[in-house]
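Record pair follows.
FIRST:
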Amino acid sequence: MDVLINVFVALHIIGIASLLGGFLTQMKAMGAGTPRFSPAMLHGALTMLVTGVALVGLNQADDQTVNNLKIGIKLAVLVVILGLVYVKRDEEKVDKGLFAAVGGLTTANIFIATLWV
């Protein structure tokens, strides 16, 4: 079971990297006022959602304790990110504030995951 959990953790990290990497590659465009949500950002957010749900299920099946409050907050933040990216995915340019919000929420989600014990 540990190997399976670790595989899903790795896939979850790949999703985070895709979402945050897509944001970081658009920083120059954000300065110019023409950022857009890339498909990598949408796929990263979806990967995070699927693997995160799988990780909660696998950890509970393995009789490990799961902090449901932490998971609920992370899920809520991810749903907001996913909603924003999904709705605005086809637009040629996205408002700078909206784009920055996705980057900030992604970063906040990473800090919640790593710093909340």
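SECOND:
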Amino acid sequence: MTNQNSGSKFLRVSAQLLLVLVISGCQTSRNYYRAESIPKGLAVIPQANPQEVDLTRLASVSGSSEMIGPGDLLNVAIAAGLGKDDLVERTARVGSDGFAPIPGIGRVELAGNEPQGAEALIRMEAVNKGLYLNPTVTVSVVQKKMNRIRVIGAVKEPQIYELPPNASDVVSAIAAAGGLADNAGENVEIRNPKRGGSVQRPSVAGGSNLPYSTVSDSTEVSGDGMNSYSINLISASVSGTNSYNIQDGGVVMVEKRDPAPLQVTGLVNKPDTYDYPIGKPLTVLGAISKAGGLSNQLADKVFVIRPLANPGDRALIEVSLRKAKRNPKSDLVLGPGDIVSVEQTAGTVFLEALQLIRVGITGSAGIF
């Protein structure tokens, strides 16, 4: 019975060998290519990983943490003499225009100064108006104005964060949210509340000459009254622009990558569907390694079936494993949705036939 089964398997393997010999070299599809000669439009360009890019160049140039800004609540004390009755102490909030109403003196522009500088400005204004001869002024920040910014998308801890206005930039917002997640893409959308007039923002130097997309040329206003624009982290970090600031009530949305998985099939030990790696190039040899290596040591021919732009259209790319091991240019870089099929050849069928003969004669598996 064992010999009959072995004979049947041998006939089946022989039929496979005949089929391989018949179809070998008959790839006539208009979308058939070899790995070394695929057109540029079909080649996969490895995408950069935003997590490996220096984003510090996008951070705003922050002033001192003691610097007074719009919205800060100040405590102002003015003493005309040594007695308690000569002391005037009030709170004052800095307006959006940078001026603060100082009791008995009037509006004084304090934003952009540290408390010591604000004290000198108030003292000078009081003397100029003839209100005091030589007053002692003390200014302290009671409460700093904070911007509430929502960070969502591909970050580790998406939620609402409070950031000081002088550090409300895209990098600080992402850092507050724990940094970029593993599936983060290159693009970030920033939405700021519309507060009259157009929002000025920088464009990326170099424009279309850069290998990645840049910010759009115009700010769009969404249906909810938010000014919205997008930046590309890779391009922006190259240009070093540091003016991507976020206003109070703004939203930062980091793009999520969700690439189609890879399928590895044929003469491999673990044929299966595998996640496409984000930000890391994967070649044919790497995909076969993911699939547990070759199940037939004589396997050499690999077909990569690549989806094209038109639905249903596919390209067939032939890769030689022997060439790929010798020359990196022959080791095709894979893209999302690719199917990697390690094919039967005359050599692999012959090896399987020898293994079956070995089993039939000795009852043991394999000859290698």
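COMMENT: Residues 199 and 308 are 39 Å apart (CA to CA).
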